[in-house]
Amino acid sequence: MSAHPALPLPPSAMQSRNESLGLWLGLLGVVIFALTLPMTRLAVGTPADPQMSGLFIALGRAAAAGGLSVLFLLSTRAPLPKRADWLPLALTAAGVVFGFPLLTSVAMRHVEAVHASVIVGVLPLATAGVGALLHRQRPSTGFWLCAALGSALVVAFAMLRSGDGLRISAADGLLLLAMLFGAMGYGYGGRLSQHMRAEHVICWALVISLPATLPAAWFSWPTVPVRTTAWWGFAYVAVFSMWLGFFAWYRGLALGGTVRVSQVQLVQPFLSMLFAVPLLGESLDLVTVGFGLAVIAIVFVGKSQATTATAVQQKAKP
């Protein structure tokens, strides 16, 4: 007997499979990104024990990842981006190559990784908002309620940790501004990944940034010896946070949708805290674990809420 040919999946089943794969790839990206703050803290040091400068960590890691990107684009014979893609690539670079890394690197010398991790909790909602605008999506009320509840839990956790309310220091302000840049870079990068290879999106964003990042990294190179652990932290944020993590993240956004997959980021603050314990010797208590489990539960409820796309009305030019 001859085997029957496999029947193609119906559109609804294919969409469901893509969304599930997108969520898993998004989670992989989030796990990689969750180590960014602890590793940045290792690299930048503290006010009492400074290591590398925030400028070098931010632009040096982009320059190193840009060099890897050149090799990757050449080895995969990547085509040049289309004319219409250059502006979105520039906005992607402004968000994830310059804005987010520079602001977080400067802030991380003045705050602990556990504290900074809770500020990252606003990133999923910001990313979802940018994604909804860019992709003409209309998330359901249930989705927004889950997103708002998850973000509210993160803010409540920050208030509990602070002891006297959430005090917005200069470092906290830099972190919050970094979240806006990150959301912009994620939104535009996810949009480009719908018609470009996800790996090529971040690679091109890094390559077009090289004229700025390479000389900046050269002039900000550490002039005094730094610890080996600081170099390990820098190596991680250069290879994983700035490069490989985006391979999974942008592919996940393209498959599962920016609005939906962005909510997986709600677990990132608590993963960062878990990583900070062995890496930096910071403490983790039952309150943190409880909030983490609550946020994870909300993420899985939120991902089941429907998201519908609205038609884009194109007006004919006279």
From TrEMBL:
Listed InterPro entries: AA-Vitamin_Transporters, EamA_dom, EmrE-like
Transmembrane residues, as ranges? Answer: 21-40, 52-74, 86-107, 113-134, 141-160, 166-189, 201-219, 231-250, 286-302
Q: Give yes or no: UniProt keyword Nucleus.
A: no
Q: Topology in the membrane?
A: Multi-pass membrane protein
Q: Where in the cell is it found?
A: Membrane
Keywords assigned = Membrane, Transmembrane, Transmembrane helix
* Residue ranges of every copy of the EamA domain listed in the record: 21-150, 172-301
Pfam families, A to Z: EamA
SUPFAM superfamilies in UniProt: Multidrug resistance efflux transporter EmrE
Query: What is one cellular component GO term in this UniProt entry?
Result: membrane
* Family indicated by similarity: Belongs to the EamA transporter family.
Protein name per UniProt? EamA family transporter
| Native organism taxonomy | Bacteria, Pseudomonadati, Pseudomonadota, Betaproteobacteria, Burkholderiales
